[in-house]
Amino acid sequence: MRQDNQLLVITHLSQLIVLITGFGSLILPLILWLTQKEKVYQMDSHGKNIVNFQLSLIVYFLLCIPLILLFGLGLLGFVVLGLISIIFPIINAIKASHGEVPKYPLSLNFIS
User: Is 36 helix (H, G, I), strand (E, B) or coil?
Assistant: First the structure.
């Protein structure tokens, strides 16, 4: 196994592909994680954190849909989740560049 902090940073930042294409925030990091987890030191833990975070965001976005119809709070939820989905990949990419294993907030543990 090799230490490759640059690839870890790219994996975290790959979640932001959604800003360009409108999709892929789960697919691209998932592909990087699955192809590199055996080759790059700490890629497995970083990849699991990213995939858990992205799956959690999907669940939270789906929960906001009925909240729009019921209370109108769903729109606020969409804005907050959108900001979280942009800010935390950047923060955690910086942490990964320093060799830390970052954690994502509000992340449910789908993959352990």
Answer: helix
Compute the distance between CA of residue 101 and CA of residue 32 in angstroms, rounded to an integer: 17
**Alpha-carbon distance 68 to 79, whole Å?**
12
Over the stretch 74-90, which tens digit does the pLDDT of each residue have?
A: 899 999 999 999 999 99
Cα 90 from Cα 67, distance rounded (Å): 28
CA distance 39 to 41: 7
CA distances from residue 8 to 29, 32, 35, 47, 58 in whole angstroms, order as listed: 10, 9, 13, 9, 22
Structural tokens at position 4: 């490759």
Rounded-to-integer distance, Cα 1 and Cα 81, Å: 35
Q: pLDDT tens digits for 5-61?
A: 999 999 999 999 999 998 889 999 999 999 999 999 999 999 999 999 999 999 999
